[in-house]
Structure formats: C-alpha cells, structure tokens
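Give me the fold.
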Amino acid sequence: MLVIPAIDLKDGQAVRLFKGDYNQKTVYSDHPEELAQTFEKAGAIYLHVVDLDGAKDGFAKNLETIKKIRNSTKMKIELGGGIRDLKTVQLYLDEVGIDRVILGTAALKDPKFLKEVLRQYGSEKIVVGVDVKNGFVSTAGWLETSQMPYIEFIQYLEAIGVGYIVATDISKDGTLTG
C-alpha cells in the first residue's frame, strides 16, 4: 500500500478546509516546506500538494511556496490546483520539477486539452482529479458543480487512457470522518 500525505496550500500556508469551505480553515503550518520534510522523515516517498487559491482562481497562486516545497524534499510530488493550460503544465513539470500534475476543472471542461497533455507528457505525468459533490463532478475549487455524473466521467477518463485519478468526496473532505 502506498500512503501519500497531502499538503493543501492557501495564502502560502498549509491548511485544511472543512468540506471545501474557504471560510472554514485550520492552519497547520506557516512553513509547508518544513511539513513536507516531516513527511519525508516519516518515510513518505510521494507528496500530494494542492494550491487551493489556484484551484479557485484558475492560475498558480502559491508558486513560490510550491518551489520551496520542491526544493526542500526528494519525495516525488503530485500537484493540483489551477492547472488549466499547457503553459502551467510546462511550468510545473519542466521548470519547477514537479513529478505529476493533477488536472481537474480543465480535464472536464476542455477534453481536447486533456488529450493533448496526455499525448505530450504521458499518463505517468498527468493525473485527473475527480471531485464529487452529490454524485456529480465539481470544478473551480469546488465552487461549481457540473451536470456530469462522476461515474460517467471516470469511465470516459479510463477510455482515453488516463492512468491516475484522485477522487475526493467533498462531503467528507476535511471532516476527519472518512
């Protein structure tokens, strides 16, 4: 079994949101890179990082903090939040040295883009985040809910060759209940 610890970033801090509510946050650290080092010392080999501000606003908001995390650890890092164009994918994979990027909103709203990134980078580097609210895929940092049933979306992703999916039940996220 592979356990992947997670760091959610908001305003440069490591936080936990309650059910995705940006107004209900718990701050765990003002230095997320130190938290990453703690996970590595505990034996983690992979780290899941989400730029919550980026997910909500649609672009890399915590880039400097992400760079600090990348430079502070040898763990492999998968990163999501606000990755909605090829330029941002290239920034994280080619320049910052992130190992895998997670596409959420863009994967649902722009299938052509998703297929192109899969073609360019392969299914080892591209993960799709499937965030579920009441049975449907949620986007834009969980602020919008689509009309796409999550099961149909997952079947589509499998059919086009997506190798990794990160699924989140929004109603449970941040509640410490499962």
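The two ends are 17 Å apart (CA to CA).
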